[in-house]
Write a structure and sequence with these properties.
Layout (H helix, E strand, L loop, with lengths): L8 H6 L11 H57 L10 H19 L9
């Protein structure tokens, strides 16, 4: 949005014209310029509001891009951790029994002073 306003509303408001005997009616010119001034102020306000909104949205975009990069890093970490897990493995009663046995062995090792996480 590259709008460049040539006049400010105050310049329109304070504009004075030379008086000439064959010129336009000063009251009529002033009334017309007042209408232009109201429209011009509306354009100025809309431009300033749009510029503010654009600035706010650009900041929001930057924040979301940063969060997206952080989320991509997190997803990458979890993908590496989960890449060896098979999606087709069904949990069944046999698997639960094996997990219970592993838990019992780990508990036995802990009770005897061994850390099961360090055993290869």
């Amino acid at each position: 949005m590259a709008i460049k306003l040539v006049l400010a509303s105050e310049e329109i408001l304070n504009k004075t014209f030379r008086i000439s005997p064959k010129g336009y009616d000063a009251f009529e010119v002033d009334e017309f310029l007042d209408k232009i001034l109201r429209d011009y102020r509306t354009v100025e306000n809309n431009y300033l509001m749009a510029a503010y909104e654009i600035e706010k949205l650009n900041k929001r975009i930057a924040d979301l891009e940063k969060k997206s990069r952080e989320d991509d890093i997190t997803i990458s970490k979890y993908s590496k951790r989960l890449e060896n897990i098979k999606e087709t493995d069904d949990v069944n009663e046999g698997n639960i029994d094996l997990i219970k046995k592993i838990r019992a062995y780990e508990k036995f090792l802990w009770n005897n002073g061994y850390n099961p996480n360090t055993i290869k």
